[in-house]
Amino acid sequence: MPRPRPPTVRTSPGCSRGARCCPRPGWGEVPIAGRVVDGFSGPDEVRARLEKTGYLVDEGLAVACFLALRLHRPIFCEGDAGVGKTALASALAEATGAPLIRLQCYEGIDASQALYDWDFPRQLLHLRAAEAAGITDADRLEAELYDRRFLIARPLLQALETQPCVLLVDEVDRADDEFEAFLLELLSEYAVSIPELGTLRAEVPPVVVLTSNRTREVHDALKRRCLYHWFDHPGFARELAIVRRRLPEVTARLADQVTALVQALRAEDLLKPPGVAETIDWAEALHALGATEVDAELAVATLGSVLKYREDAERARGLDLSGILAARGT
After folding, report:
1. 159-198 burial by CB neighbour count: b if 16+ within 10 A, else e?
2. ∠258-267-256 over CA atoms, to 5°?
3. 3-class DSSP state for residue 229?
4. Spatial distance between the Cα atoms of 59 and 69, rounded to a whole number of angstroms
5. Which residues lie closer than 8 Å to 118 by C-beta, 6 or more apart?
């Protein structure tokens, strides 16, 4: 059975890269029909819709999200782990009523794992069935083998075919330079050329959220295609509001105390400062233990919910946790 040619991305009409880049004569482009994601009147409406999902944003992020929706530009979210980058994509999907399609990046990921692949076992079964039926027309068999029904759509192709949708490219900093360049090409045109089928282009681009934990620097070429937002750890008031919104069953006192403890831990020289996700985990763990407030002994006993390194836990045990809690009126 003939092997398919590797996937390529169509960058522009009249591309001069040859047959591997552009479809063969007569194929043309296959537009993928879609509809525009429900419109937003401005950043304030974006903020209000996101807050209804339980995701609280500041003015800068609300503006970035509005521009990403209005201009069909990807939004590049960078910051420490656990500060809400991935959760933003989920909140945007819920706020817009669009499905969320997630591509988790990792070292060594390539186009066949991110874009599409051919279902070789099904193609082989089809070939054997055709031979058993006495079909010997080679051209017909090849055309049937590379039919759309044998194409396995990976997340990137799913995002081009699904309208509307939110595409999350998570932890793009874990992928290598080659995949980053491939992604840059795809996001420039929101189109892909499949040699056996032709060019597929999304009429309405997906809402794209790229995240990076900054384990390595992402190339400027990719960032230039995106709206950029740095996710910092929130201040006390905003973090407390997030905890209260995400965990309404937790008492106000417990939420206040846990937030204060996490804010104090972040001020220390830790290997991995806790993010908002760890704050929520800690409050949830204490609530599961039946606590309505926390003391220093209980805080130390549950440090595994918020700190993930032995050195960080030892440093936390040496802090005056009782003093931190006393300052919150306990």
Report:
1. bbbbbbbbbbbbbbbbbeeebbebbbebbebbbbbbbbbb
2. 20
3. strand
4. 16
5. 4, 146, 150, 151, 152
Neighbours of 76 (CB within 10 A): 25
Give the DSSP per-residue string, 116-163: EEE-HHHHHHHHHHHHHTT---HHHHHHHHTSGGGEEE-HHHHHHHSS
Q: Which amino acid would we find at residue 15?
A: C
- 271-327 pLDDT per residue, tens: 999 999 999 999 999 999 999 999 999 999 999 999 999 999 999 999 999 999 998
pTM of the model: 0.79
For residues 45-53, average pLDDT: 93
pLDDT of amino acid 206: 93
d(CA 285, CA 283): 5
pLDDT of 24 > 60? The answer is no
Angle at 241 between CA 252 and CA 209, to 5 degrees: 145
